[in-house]
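Quick one:
INPUT:
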């Protein structure tokens, strides 16, 4: 969601800001804007549409200034239009502010400000905040840094903000709560601010992650100063980033999504490497080892997540129950947090999040923490808010995922959750050594098997061409393949805007079967294993009603291949590992359908990569 960039230093700000905004496009947005200060005046431009529209707008205009802010807006309060786009100015025109998040008490603040004569141009909560800061400055005579701090004590909600005062072009002020903000410390007095480090990685690897309710002042003379909104001084802790520029570029592919699909052999390998020692039959998961006692005594696991990460959680439910024999529940983070969940002694909450910034997942963590649960995180972004909010965790090493529709993060999540389940099972003695070693060995073959499946690309593309104009699709799977059916359906609707539903294959009889006719493509994960025969029966039921079957089958399968209209073979593996391999053709299929329909696969309409509002 909204992307934030800021710069103060010895270079022209605009080129840095615009490049930064392009790097943040993946987060999802519908308007954008920039503001620079030159000669104590704002050069401010904003418009509805893409960053390219903003570039066209500023063409030939004054864009000078060595201090500036830039923003991509994902609409919450007010439609996407030029006026609602950020930055927003204070009533006196002296302050310019960008914001990511939602100010929940904006209506009360707005009413009070209007009574005092403030006039608002936009429908946004952000404009209210900048007027509120202006109001405090004019009433108390405080400077921007102090006024921001005081204002934020009154604010309810989530925010990452950057604000500047045209009368003082030597200072930039930023703050955050529940929305991410990172400060990059460059060479020779250059400072960068952004929602994540991607906008400035070629300039510096030294970053400070702002914590919740911290306000930072960046002053050209005195550098960086951080206080809490309660006015406690904080020492900035400088982290060193490992992120590389190549990792956030397309590397010759047409889209990030395609690149990321093809990266999966490597990203799965990176996620298991160093954690799996086949020679010694050992698993090394330091986040588990450090808290062995807690895992040994676990009575229940509750998994909280959203979107694709929730699907990875569903796979993990089967894994934890089968391998470690721990009762496991999987919850949408947004549902978990809004009831009064029962947390008991021995409960472990696992939070899964690619971005590590999803607002609902973060709130679920905070709630579970308050109730005394031990929280374990599975995140992809190092240093992200969720990775810092958990008691322990294991990173997926998928590398930056830029395409909004998650692909390599999902398979890396399942691989890491697999290792966690095996490691816990090993400690609890719930798997025989022989089975454990067999599964470990099988896991190590998965990157090669994924490589093999990627070779089905042309076949999948030809199937996509047949079904690209259909309006609905059904995805079916049983056991470990049920979450894959959900994920396959989600991928198709996310990027091609075709209505798709995932169902446990046996549930088809209880509703979806009514939809089946010759117009309905039904994607079935029908690999050989535990419920193979049952799935074959479900396929027969679809065929009897003239539905079209596209089946994912085990290499060499005859039975399903003869029944299906199309079949895509994947290498044989253990049932528990099928999700990582079988999801690949479904990712490719969605990709090709979306491309054929002329959709923007990396930035699908209305969606955001990092959902930082509730
Ligand atoms: C958004 C993204 C999805 C993602 C979900 C959860 O909806 O578009 O791809 O699965 O958020 O995100 P997280 O970063 O917590 O995994």
């Amino acid at each position: 969601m909204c992307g934030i960039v800021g710069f103060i230093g010895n270079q022209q700000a605009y080129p840095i800001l615009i490049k930064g905004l392009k790097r943040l496009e993946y987060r999802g947005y519908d308007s954008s804007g920039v503001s620079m200060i030159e000669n104590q005046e704002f050069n401010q431009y904003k418009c509805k549409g893409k960053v390219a529209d903003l570039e066209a707008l500023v063409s030939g205009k004054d864009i000078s200034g060595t201090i500036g802010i830039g923003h991509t807006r994902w609409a919450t309060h007010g439609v996407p239009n030029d006026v609602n786009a950020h930055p927003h100015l204070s009533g006196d025109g002296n302050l310019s502010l960008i914001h990511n998040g939602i100010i929940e008490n904006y209506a009360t603040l707005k009413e009070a400000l209007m009574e005092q004569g403030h006039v608002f141009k936009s429908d946004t909560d952000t404009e209210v905040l900048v007027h509120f800061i202006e109001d405090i400055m004019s009433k108390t005579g405080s400077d921007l840094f102090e006024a921001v701090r005081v204002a934020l004590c009154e604010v309810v909600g989530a925010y990452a903000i950057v604000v500047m005062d045209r009368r003082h072009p030597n200072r930039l002020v930023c703050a955050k709560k529940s929305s991410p903000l990172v400060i990059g410390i460059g060479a020779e007095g250059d400072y960068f601010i952004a929602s994540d480090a991607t906008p400035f990685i070629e300039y510096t690897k030294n970053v400070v992650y702002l914590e919740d309710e911290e306000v930072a002042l960046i002053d050209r003379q005195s550098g960086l100063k951080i206080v809490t909104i309660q006015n406690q001084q904080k020492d900035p802790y400088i982290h060193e980033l490992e992120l590389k520029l190549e990792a956030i570029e397309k590397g010759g592919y047409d889209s990030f999504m395609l690149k990321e699909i093809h990266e999966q052999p490597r990203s799965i390998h990176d996620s298991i490497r160093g954690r799996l020692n086949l020679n010694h039959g050992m698993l090394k998961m330091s986040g588990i080892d450090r808290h062995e006692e807690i895992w040994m005594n676990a009575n229940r696991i509750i998994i909280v997540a959203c979107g694709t990460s929730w699907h990875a959680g569903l796979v993990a439910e089967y894994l934890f129950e089968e391998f470690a024999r721990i009762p496991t529940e999987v919850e949408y983070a947004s549902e978990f947090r809004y009831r009064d969940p029962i947390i008991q002694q021995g409960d472990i909450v696992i939070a899964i999040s690619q971005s590590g910034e999803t607002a609902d997942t973060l709130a679920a963590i905070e709630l579970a923490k308050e109730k005394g649960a031990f929280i374990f995180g599975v995140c992809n972004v190092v240093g992200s808010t969720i990775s810092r909010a958990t008691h322990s965790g294991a990173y997926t090493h998928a590398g930056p995922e830029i395409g909004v529709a998650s692909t390599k993060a999902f398979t890396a999540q399942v691989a890491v959750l697999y290792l966690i389940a095996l490691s816990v099972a090993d400690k609890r003695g719930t798997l025989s050594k022989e089975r454990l070693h067999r599964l470990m060995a099988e896991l190590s073959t998965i990157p090669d098997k994924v490589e093999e499946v990627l070779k089905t690309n042309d076949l999948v593309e030809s199937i996509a061409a047949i079904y690209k104009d259909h309006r609905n699709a059904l995805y079916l799977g049983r056991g470990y393949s049920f979450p894959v059916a959900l994920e396959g359906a989600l991928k198709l609707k996310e990027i091609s805007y075709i209505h798709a539903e995932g169902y446990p294959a046996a549930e088809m009889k209880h509703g979806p079967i009514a939809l089946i006719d010759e117009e309905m493509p039904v994607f079935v994960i029908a690999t050989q294993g535990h419920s193979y025969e049952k799935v074959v029966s479900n396929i027969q039921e679809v065929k009897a009603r003239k539905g079209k079957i596209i089946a994912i089958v085990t290499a060499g399968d005859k039975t399903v291949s003869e029944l299906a209209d199309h079949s895509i073979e994947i290498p044989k593996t253990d049932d528990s590992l099928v999700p990582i391999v079988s999801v690949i053709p479904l990712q490719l299929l969605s990709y090709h359908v979306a491309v054929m329909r002329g959709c923007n696969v990396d930035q699908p309409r209305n969606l955001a990569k990092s959902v930082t509002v509730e």
